[in-house]
């Protein structure tokens, strides 16, 4: 039995949330999720989002917030999520110019220290959510490890996306254990196939034209791909994680986003 509570990253059902935010939150709760991680507020005020979460019975765990948005107004942007009740804000993705190997990657390292300080003052934590591009090596060391070495754990926690760790060429179980004690949340994401040219078209934020899933790489509901979730979840529990968060950037298997989210939670309930 999974001992940790399970949340849903709302980016997984973003079109539903944009069309009917309250209704989508209620459906997420009905599926059996304990909490949610935000990816935008769809025009809602923080106080309204807080009220809805309290009324529906969902824990507002954390939020994915673009790095440049937080850097533009750290106290204001992070403070909005503090008002909602989030315990953590997360740097979710880096555009090309900020990625490892580019000159502006140092800005991410420096900025994480600044944002981590602001979070601390607000009684929150900052985390970083990886993709596979952090698994390039700089002087023989993965860029992700450089980030976590350069920014202390007092300022920056991990949010390991176990799919992208795998795609990046590392072992998700080993990576969760490597950062034991430094994580509030672990992302559960499943996939089939191998690393391919158009993978990022499947997460909805690719540079260029969005493409359909291919046999080469496809995101799947949790439990319907190649990830070893019993081992990942055991490592998460033993490494001090407090939440498991399901994320599926694009639906697959002929299902809608909400149907995929239900398939994921139903699978996790069988463990």
Descriptive notes:
This protein is of the alpha/beta class. It has one domain (6-269): TIM Barrel (Alpha-Beta Barrel). The chain is built from eleven helices and twelve strands. The protein has helices spanning 14-19, 21-31, 46-56, 67-72, 74-84, 105-121, 143-150, 162-167, 172-178, 229-238, 257-269, and strands at residues 6-9, 35-38, 59-64, 88-91, 125-129, 137-138, 141-142, 157-159, 185-188, 190-193, 217-220, 243-246. An eight-stranded parallel beta sheet has the order 8-5-4-3-2-1-12-9. It has a two-stranded antiparallel sheet with strand order 6-7. A hairpin with a 2-residue loop joins strand 6 (137-138) and strand 7. The radius of gyration is 17 Å and the shape is globular. The termini are close together. The model is unreliable at 208-214 (pLDDT under 50).
Index terms:
39% helix; eight-stranded parallel beta sheet; 271 residues; two-stranded antiparallel ribbon; alpha/beta; TIM Barrel; globular
Short overview:
The protein has a single domain, classed as TIM Barrel (Alpha-Beta Barrel), CATH 3.20.20.
The CATH homology group name: Divalent-metal-dependent TIM barrel enzymes
Straight-line N-to-C gap: 5 Å
> Which CATH class?
Alpha Beta
Q: Total helix count?
A: 11
CATH A-level architecture: Alpha-Beta Barrel
Structural class: alpha/beta
Helix content: 25-40%
C-alpha-based Rg, rounded: 17 Å
State mean pLDDT (0 to 100 scale): 94
- The largest sheet has its strands arranged as 8-5-4-3-2-1-12-9
Q: How would the global form be characterised? A: globular
Low-confidence stretches: 208-214
**How many beta-strand segments?**
12
Order of helices and strands: EHHEHEHHEHEEEHEHHEEEHEH
Main sheet attributes: strand count, strand direction, barrel closure: 8 strands, parallel
């Amino acid at each position: 039995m999974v001992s940790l509570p399970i949340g849903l990253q709302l980016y997984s059902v973003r079109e539903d949330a944009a069309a009917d935010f309250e209704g989508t939150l209620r459906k997420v709760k009905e599926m059996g999720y304990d909490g949610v991680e935000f990816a935008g507020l769809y025009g809602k005020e923080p106080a309204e989002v807080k009220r809805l979460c309290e009324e529906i019975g969902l824990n507002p765990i954390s939020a994915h917030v673009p790095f440049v948005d937080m850097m533009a107004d750290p106290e204001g942007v992070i403070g909005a999520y503090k008002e909602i009740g989030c315990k953590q804000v997360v740097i979710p993705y880096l555009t090309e110019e900020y990625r490892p190997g580019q000159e502006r990657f140092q800005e991410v390292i420096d900025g994480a220290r600044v944002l981590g300080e602001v979070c601390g003052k607000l009684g929150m934590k900052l985390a970083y959510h990886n993709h596979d591009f952090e698994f390039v090596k700089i002087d023989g060391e993965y860029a992700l490890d450089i980030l976590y070495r350069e920014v202390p754990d007092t300022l920056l926690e991990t949010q390991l996306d176990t799919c992208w760790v795998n795609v990046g060429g590392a072992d998700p179980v080993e990576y969760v254990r490597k950062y034991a004690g430094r994580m509030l949340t672990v992302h559960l994401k499943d996939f089939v196939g191998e690393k391919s040219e158009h993978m990022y078209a499947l997460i909805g934020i690719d540079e260029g034209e969005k493409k359909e899933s291919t046999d080469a790489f496809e995101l799947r509901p949790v439990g319907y791909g190649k990830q070893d979730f019993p081992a990942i979840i055991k490592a998460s529990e033993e490494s001090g994680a407090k939440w498991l968060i399901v994320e599926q950037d694009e639906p697959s298997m002929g299902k809608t986003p909400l149907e995929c989210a239900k398939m994921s939670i139903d699978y996790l309930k069988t463990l």
